[in-house]
Amino acid sequence: MKRLSVIIPMYNVAPYVERCIRSLEDQDVPQEDYELICINDGSPDHSKEVVRTLQNEFSNIVLIDQENQGVSVARNNGIDRATGDYLLMIDPDDYVLPNVFAEKLKILDQSKVDIGYTGYVILDGQLKEEYRYDPIYKEDKVISGIQYFNRYEKGKVEIRDPHRSVAIFFRRSFFNQHTIRYLSEVPYLEDGELITRAACLAQRVIFINTPFYMRTTRPGSATHSNLFNTDRARTGFLKAANNLHIFKLNKCIETGQKEFVNQSIIHFTFMFLVSVKIKEYIKYYPQLHASLKTGSLRKLDNAGCSRFYTKIARYYNLSIHFVYLYWVLFSIRHSLKFKAEKLFKSV
User: Concatenated DSSP letters for 266-333?
Assistant: First the structure.
């Protein structure tokens, strides 16, 4: 039994994965106490060969080789193979600071939590810090996942990458007890769908201060590609919204749990709509309407949601036209504001 299993899905990341793995090996706990599970998701580059070479140097690296099935299946296969008390997801183009695991694991063991949130730093293309997430956590006791979200994340639009599952420690037995796995065929924001279900069910949650996870900006990654505006992404958003609706009906017993899930259902429904480009909206409208208004998402419940998602649901329940028009106007206003700020800085 290991103390920690780090899950690393790999696809076309050969230039980055060695940096990632070496950062994970440069830690203050014995190699036999944790494992790095690298899942080669049918990558056409030599990511697998990089890992095989590193296996000659480090004894705690496990390599899983699979046909390309997407990041969700890759992570799930890693979770199924894991033996650690805790799981930590990491993207292979990211890395962690040295000698941080001992302190984090000590806190996790003492608190006996389901989820241990941590801070993170987002780096620009030159690996310079451009954003830091490190809220002041003064709780003197463990709280629930819903309480954590409501106090530290709800309605805070300034938070970047709020739907991540990286930089978070999950108790493996908690995942297995509730059969929590990533939803397949959701190629964009799949983290947010999983973290909604996990946080909803978690009764013991803490935040561990001092960021250690360094999030990089890589051209070609899903976050920085044109994937958002594809049919594949749109299908994934719809699947995530419907899956969360089913989860709400079958797994959410308390009112607070149902209200917590409402916001993510609205979020993925909204993503499904706005992933359609403006010039294609009229063309796709019949398909959008049929997908949304004839099934379980025909009406959205905004109870417990932040102001933004309350407004989105209200517009949606009137007409999806209102939602899309609101998004177009919001985008134009945001673009003009960004250009004005950029011009002001250049003066």
Answer: HHHHHHHHHTS-GGGHHHHHHHHHHHHHTSTTSS---TT--HHHHHHHHHHHH-HHHHHHHHHHHHHH
Structure-block tokens of residue 311: 């407004």
pLDDT digits (tens, 9 = 90+) for 60-83: 999 999 999 999 999 999 999 999
CA 24 → CA 7, 34, 54, 210, 273, distances in Å? 11, 10, 12, 17, 39
Instruction: Give strand pairing partners of 35.
Output: 5
Measured torsion, CA atoms of residues 13, 16, 19, 22, in degrees rounded to the nearest 10? 10
Per-residue pLDDT at 218 exceeds 80: no
Of 198, 20, 208, 191, nearest in space to 105 by CA: 208
Spatial CA neighbour of 263 closest among 216, 311, 317? 311
CA–CA separation, 118 vs 104, rounded Å? 9
Long-range contacts of 75-78 (CB under 8 A, 24+ apart): 75/7, 75/9, 75/39, 75/182, 76/181, 76/182, 76/184, 77/39, 78/5, 78/7, 78/8, 78/9, 78/37, 78/39
Is the pLDDT at 166 greater than 80? The verdict is yes
Q: Per residue in 306-319, pLDDT tens?
A: 999 999 999 999 99
The answer to whether residues 105 and 86 touch, using CB atoms and an 8 Å cutoff, is yes
Dihedral sign, Cα of residue 66, residue 71, residue 73, residue 78: positive
User: Which of 8-25 are b and which e, b meaning 16 or more Cβ less than 10 Å from the residue's Cβ?
Assistant: bbbbbbbebbbbbbebbb
Section 100-117 average pLDDT: 96
Torsion of CA 82, 223, 229, 227, to 10 degrees: -60
- Residue whose tokens read 């993170």: 120
Q: Which residues, including other chains, have CB under 8 Å from residue 235's CB and lie 6 or more apart?
A: 185
Torsion angles phi and psi, residue 295, rounded to 5: -125, -150
Q: By the 8 A CB rule, do 137 and 209 touch?
A: yes
Which two tokens mark 71?
A: 């990041």
Per-residue CA distances from 11 to 17, 92, 127, 169, 233 (Å): 10, 9, 21, 23, 18
Q: Which of 128, 203, 102, 211 is closest to 166 using CA atoms?
A: 211
